[in-house]
């Protein structure tokens, strides 16, 4: 039961017009229904759209805070001018840019870890096939006339196909490898930061800004990243060339860090060399410990998966 807004007479629910004065009531009834729904804690129809607006607003806010154009410029400068680009980042890098660069480098290191695992698996496969051919050749030399036992190109191709089929069934923990490499990168950055922070504050009377030291440690990892990508690419041609390129990247990062510590943190050459040596030694130990743990875990998962595949194939 409702009331007419014009004359105040009672009207039945669902009535379109007032029986007393004849005024149209449909708009009033709609407003009453909406009000009733609100009083009963009904969710408004536009709640979903409001949540979308809030999510887009959060994304826009994050995008505005992290200047992606600035990150791109930093990465380009570090490619061609690692020292001057690093010094500029240490002097002018904002908090948002540092956070964005940290996340970006951790993700890239995770991707590179997966890439390297794929490369290692392919290399082992090629070595195994090459070993089969060499053994067959040696057997032919020891026992002349057994050339018919030497695998032909078609045999090798068939063996490669079978290996690829088995490999596709083996569950390689790529997600786990990605997370492990990202965590390893962050762990190395933290270790370098702690050692360099403690070292600079011990040898210097003035306390150094932790944020400045973190920016220094973060930015010198960029040249290593570039050379790491190049080393993976060149490793397809020669493992030794790839390893050499990676070592060059480490040398470039060490030299850049030494210059930045001297000129931006105002540490003399002798102390800077000592600090860098200790920090990289600590980082190297952490890398070895983590790799040992990660490799044992991943190899165990792969062996278990391969065992299950072989059991299924057997049955």
Main features:
315 residues; mainly alpha; 11 helices; 2 strands; flat; membrane; Zinc_ribbon_dom; Metal-binding membrane protein; transmembrane helix
Helix count, DSSP H or I runs of 4 or more residues = 11
Proportion of strand residues: under 5%
Report how far apart the termini are: 76 Å
Q: What's the helix-strand series? A: EEHHHHHHHHHHH
- Class of secondary structure makeup: mainly alpha
Number of E-type strands: 2
In the predicted model, the low-confidence regions spanning at least 5 consecutive residues are 27-34, 36-43
Q: Could you tell me the radius of gyration in angstroms?
A: 33 Å
Strand order of the biggest β-sheet: 1-2
- Approximate helicity band: over 70%
Biggest sheet, in brief?
A: 2 strands, antiparallel
Which descriptor suits the 3D outline? flat
State the domain count.
2
Return the average pLDDT rounded to an integer.
77
InterPro entries: Zinc_ribbon_dom
Keywords: Membrane, Transmembrane, Transmembrane helix
Protein name: Metal-binding membrane protein
Transmembrane segments: 97-115, 177-199, 211-233, 239-261, 273-295
Quick take:
The chain is mainly α and 315 residues long.
3D structure, described in words:
With about 325 residues, the chain is mainly α. It has helices at about 25-40, 45-65, 70-80, 80-90, 95-140, 155-170, 175-205, 210-220, 220-235, 240-265, 270-315; strands at about 1-5, 10. The protein folds into two domains: about 1-60, no CATH class; about 75-115 and about 170-315, no CATH class. A two-stranded antiparallel ribbon has the order 1-2. Residues about 25-35 and about 35-45 have low confidence and may be disordered. This is Metal-binding membrane protein. It holds the Pfam family Zn_Ribbon_1.
């Amino acid at each position: 039961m409702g009331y007419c807004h014009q004359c105040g007479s009672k009207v039945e629910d669902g009535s379109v017009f007032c029986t007393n004065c004849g005024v149209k009531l449909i708009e009033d009834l709609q407003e009453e229904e909406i009000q009733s729904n609100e009083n009963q804690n009904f969710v408004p129809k536009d709640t979903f759209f409001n949540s979308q607006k809030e999510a887009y607003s959060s994304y826009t806010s994050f995008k505005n805070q992290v200047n992606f154009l600035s990150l791109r410029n930093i990465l380009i400068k570090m490619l061609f001018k690692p020292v001057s680009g690093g010094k500029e980042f240490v002097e002018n890098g904002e908090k948002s840019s540092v956070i964005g660069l940290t996340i970006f480098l951790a993700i890239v290191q995770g991707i590179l870890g997966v890439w390297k695992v794929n490369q290692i698996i392919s290399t082992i496969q090629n070595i195994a096939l090459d070993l089969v051919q060499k053994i067959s050749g040696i057997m032919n030399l020891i026992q002349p006339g057994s050339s018919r036992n030497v695998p032909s190109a078609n045999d090798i191709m068939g063996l490669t196909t079978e290996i690829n089929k088995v490999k596709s069934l083996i569950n390689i923990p790529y997600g786990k490898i990605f997370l492990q490499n990202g965590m390893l990168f962050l762990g190395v950055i933290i270790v370098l930061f702690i050692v360099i922070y403690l070292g600079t504050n011990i040898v210097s009377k003035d306390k150094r800004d932790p944020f400045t030291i973190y920016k220094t440690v973060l930015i010198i990892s960029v040249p290593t990243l570039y050379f790491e990508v190049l080393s993976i690419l060149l490793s397809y041609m020669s493992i030794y060339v790839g390893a050499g390129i990676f070592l060059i990247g480490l040398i470039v990062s060490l030299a850049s860090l030494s210059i930045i510590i001297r000129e931006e943190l105002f540490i003399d050459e002798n102390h800077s060399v000592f600090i860098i040596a200790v920090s990289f030694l600590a980082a190297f130990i952490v890398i070895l410990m983590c790799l040992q743990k990660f490799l044992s875990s991943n190899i165990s998962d792969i062996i278990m998966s391969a065992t299950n595949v072989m059991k299924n194939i057997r049955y």
